[in-house]
Amino acid sequence: DQFVMNGGKLLCFIDNLYAEMDSFAYKPEIIAYDRNLNLTDLFFKYGLRINTDLVMDLRCDLNYIQVGGTAAQPQNEFLPWNYFPLVASPEKASKLLTPGYIGLKFANSIDTINVENVTKTPLLVTSPNSRTIGTPALISLNENKTVPEDSKFKKDAIPVAMLLEGRFSSLYRNRVSQSQLRSFDSIGISFKKESSDNKIIVVADGDMVLNDFIPQFDSSGAVNPNLPPRPLEMGYNKNTFYEYLFQGELSKYFKAVANRDFYLNCIEYLVSNPDINQARNKDIVLRLLDGPKVRQQKTTWQFINIALPVLLVLLFGWVYQQVRKRKYAA
To answer: Which of 138, 207, 227, 274 would be 105's cystine partner, CB 3.0–4.6 Å?
Structure first.
């Protein structure tokens, strides 16, 4: 709190729930529940609240899940995992716009609080096909064996990262005793009740800045136990990266994410000239299609892209023949 009051820039990646993929190694179901980090009052004073819910999105990363077979010979497939949303920067985040999608894992939604002298800007939001579920929540790998009901995914632009700017009031304002104030004075520090103009960025997912690891392999494709695991770039999915590395259809599974770019942009914005970000991020690159819309309009676009060109060629050929017949008729 006093770090912020004295001008320190705060960049937080908060895991508000116990929900980890490692737990699925022991059983096919886990329960996501509150970590009780005791940060609610602090962030509430600054202007936001990280909810103890789970964000689900139809625009999401893939997970490698057993869909059949036996324990000895499992049948695994890559399936969309709605708890791994791929979020993006909204247009209103012009100060800190990051092209591409940012991969999250078990993220929470963020609400803003009306605090005087503090402005709030959403930096990352979900797609128009998203939802939240309350916790404690049962998460099962069996969920992915059935197609999710699109009717439940109707929320749009759920914020999962927020920029706070302005003058922040201390959580401990009017709560510090005289003896504590004297202790501050004895070490040459003065307690500050309010900051000057400052910035705070809060992301409701701690996994966003973690690196997955994959084993290193020899030329035959076998794991080499003598080499240390290889760290992947921030946000890359180790399962899909392995498929990208060793299988034939590289682009079918692999998705590059912009976690690292977003992280660097946040640091640049907090400690450097904000105009640098706007110069770096001129274009927004969209890599994914709207899943529900693709399913609804699949036949139409197949006709436009496959059948229509053939029909146009045949029509042109028929018209050309008719013109030739009339022109060269005896």
So the answer is: 207
Residues 270 and 7: their CA atoms lie apart, in Å, by: 11
Pairwise CA distance, residues 319 & 222, whole Å: 61
* Lowest mean per-residue pLDDT among 5-9, 65-69, 248-252: 248-252
The two tokens of residue 43 are 């962030």
Give 305's DSSP letter. I
DSSP label at residue 221: S
160 phi, psi to nearest 5 deg: -125, 0
Residue 135 backbone zone (phi > 0: left; psi -120 to 50: alpha; other: beta): beta
* Residue (of 55, 61, 43, 202) closest to 122 by Cα position: 202
The stretches of 201-274 forming alpha helices (DSSP H) are 238-246, 250-253, 259-271
Separation of alpha carbons 54 and 140, rounded Å:
14
Written as six digits, the tokens of 160 are 């999962």
pLDDT tens-digit profile of 250-292?
A: 444 456 688 999 999 999 899 886 666 666 555 555 556 777 7
With beta carbons less than 8 A apart as the criterion, state whether 104 and 85 touch: yes
291-326 pLDDT per residue, tens: 777 778 888 888 888 989 999 999 999 998 888 888
CB 240 within 8 A of CB 62: yes
